[in-house]
Amino acid sequence: MSSHKDFVAHNEKYAQERHRPNLPTPPSKKLLIVTCMDSRIDNFDSLGLQLGEAHIIRNAGGAAKDALRSIIISQRMLGTREIALFHHTGCGLLTFTTPQLREKIKAELGPNANAETSEVLEKMEFLEFSDLEASVKEDVEFLRNHPLVLKETTVTGWIFRVEDGRIHQVV
Amino acid sequence: MSSHKDFVAHNEKYAQERHRPNLPTPPSKKLLIVTCMDSRIDNFDSLGLQLGEAHIIRNAGGAAKDALRSIIISQRMLGTREIALFHHTGCGLLTFTTPQLREKIKAELGPNANAETSEVLEKMEFLEFSDLEASVKEDVEFLRNHPLVLKETTVTGWIFRVEDGRIHQVV
């Protein structure tokens, strides 16, 4: 495994030809995107974003709950006031449940699973979902009602289709 | 606030001209990137990544601890075996401490801060850092030693410079 060895040559070309230096830290569109870590999603290209315009939070599934620390920092320290949350078709989070993944990891760890590791694992929620559209609605509701998310925030919820690259707004 | 109104037109052009459909869910390079939500970082362009190659986790700072749920899913369910973690110059996480941000939010909430909200806030760690290079080393160590991260994982740590778009490897 050494994909990182390709980074430097690609990056030098990027730095010389396409990077925009001297942009301010607060995103110019006051926009925050929450989306999945999935390899088939390029937020800049698929949404027409430019450097400097939006914070982008990515985690397994695009889970709002897991993004909360970052959202608070984005809003309180760096002025974002709009959140667009995306989940997507073909997401890995549609394929397992937390108890199943816990059991799989316990089996893989075997005798390496000490009491502390087992405890961390038992407390970990993997935030999977079984209904894609419902999961978007639930996450948007979570953000709209959370006491630490600013009341004046515009929150929208979307689905990205990996099959054709198209988005549609759910809520 | 209505930046989301621009998404659909941009996206239609993307879907027609540049999206790659029918890529498998597991990233082809077995690579996982962890980086900050900062608006000045485009991981695809700055590292020369293509759709389908790598998971990308982004949160405030590029914090390894906050990425753990996603990393476990990426490794156990979708086969990634290399992690490249990036922090960057000019990061918002260099500008405050958790106690300062808690106080700021409490002041902004004023009488809206009920007991439950205050308790959530008191438990929240914002994972700031004061030394950029040290923060990269600490996060790489965290991943290399974590019992739920696979032992055979290649973990590297990097700094991205927003001033000129260049990266350099720290560890």
UniProtKB/TrEMBL annotation, chains A, B:
**Which Enzyme Commission number(s) are on file for it?**
4.2.1.1
Mind listing the UniProt keywords for this protein, alphabetically? Lyase, Metal-binding, Zinc
- Please name the top-level EC class of this enzyme: lyase
> Quick check: keyword Lyase in the entry?
yes
Cofactor needs: Zn(2+)
Report the superkingdom from the record: Eukaryota
Transmembrane is among the record's keywords: no
Q: Basic and acidic residues composition bias: which ranges?
A: 1-20
Region (Disordered) spans which residues?
1-26
Q: Which reaction does it catalyse?
A: hydrogencarbonate + H(+) = CO2 + H2O
Protein family according to the UniProt entry: Belongs to the beta-class carbonic anhydrase family.
The protein's role, per its UniProt record = Reversible hydration of carbon dioxide.
Descriptive protein name: Carbonic anhydrase
Q: Which organism is it from?
A: Marasmius tenuissimus
